[in-house]
Amino acid sequence: MGPDSARAAYKADMESGKSCIHQPVVCIATMSDSTVIGFVLIARHGDRHENFQNPDTFAVSQTAITPLGKQLSNFLRSVYLDRSLPSYIAGISPSTSIFNSTGQVAVYADNDFPNDTVILDSTAALTQGLWPATPLQNITLANGTTIVNPLGGYKYVPVNGINPDENVSPKGTTDCTTFLNCAQVLYNWTLFQEVSTNASAFFAALPPYVGGRPIELENAVCDMIPPYPLSLLSTMTALRFTVEYL
């Protein structure tokens, strides 16, 4: 239903005395009705291979990125950086041209070096999918020789690394005493310990599926793991919901 139709329906209902509370109206605009002037992308590094977070300090280890993140950047490039599409961002340089960051692109990433660099690495991979290499990315020397950037015209997209010790916006829990204390209160809670004890048999069956990592309720997260017996699925789901609820 378009905006004009929605207003007409609302007016008719009001004049007839009908209540509009239980009659939701959905207004859908088409791409032809608007111009895309920009977009904000808040993306979690879903292309990681594995991740372990210490339940007491929340320090990250055993993490590596995979090529899967390129799928996201390919999708974003096809939607927002293709000049032939109505979803193309007005005024931005298309992905096939020379990269221009002046006033067009701002990239920020959590850079918790040396504890965790996977987010920064993942961001760099994402930008390379958005702006792939092109021979147009070159310079001409004074003697007339044209030099193409390495790797076939690699585009150096600036990534602003944010140190969590200096800016809490990307990850406010880093080294946060209040948060760490709250976590310890949860772990010491009688109900939490009771759930952990009751799940001991379940945890004893997990070593073949989690690569030798510590197996306690404190480490329970919702994540992808190798194929596991369906008999474990219901217990996994119940424990995950329990930890999130607590």
General description of the model:
- This protein is of the alpha+beta class and 246 residues long.
- It folds into three domains: 3-33, no CATH class; 48-162, no CATH class; 189-245, no CATH class.
- It has eight helices and six strands.
- It has helices spanning 3-16, 69-80, 118-130, 150-153, 177-188, 190-198, 200-204, 233-245, and strands spanning 48-53, 60-65, 108-110, 138-140, 146-148, 160-162.
- The strands form three sheets. Strands 1-2 form a two-stranded antiparallel ribbon.
- A hairpin with a 5-residue loop joins strand 4 and strand 5.
- It is elongated and about 75 Å long.
- The two termini are 42 Å apart.
Task: Write out key terms for the chains shown.
Histidine phosphatase superfamily protein (Branch 2), His_PPase_superfam, two-stranded antiparallel ribbon
Task: Please provide a brief summary of the model.
This is Histidine phosphatase superfamily protein (Branch 2). The chain has helices at 3-16, 69-80, 118-130, 150-153, 177-188, 190-198, 200-204, 233-245, and strands spanning 48-53, 60-65, 108-110, 138-140, 146-148, 160-162.
Number of helices: 8
Largest sheet: 2 strands, antiparallel
Structure classification: alpha+beta
Distance between the termini: 42 Å
The helix content is 25-40%
Strand coverage percent: 5-15%
Global geometry: elongated
Integer count of domains: 3
The side-by-side strand order for the widest beta sheet comes to 1-2
The quaternary state of the protein chains shown equals single chain
Count all strands and give the number.
6
Protein name: Histidine phosphatase superfamily protein (Branch 2)
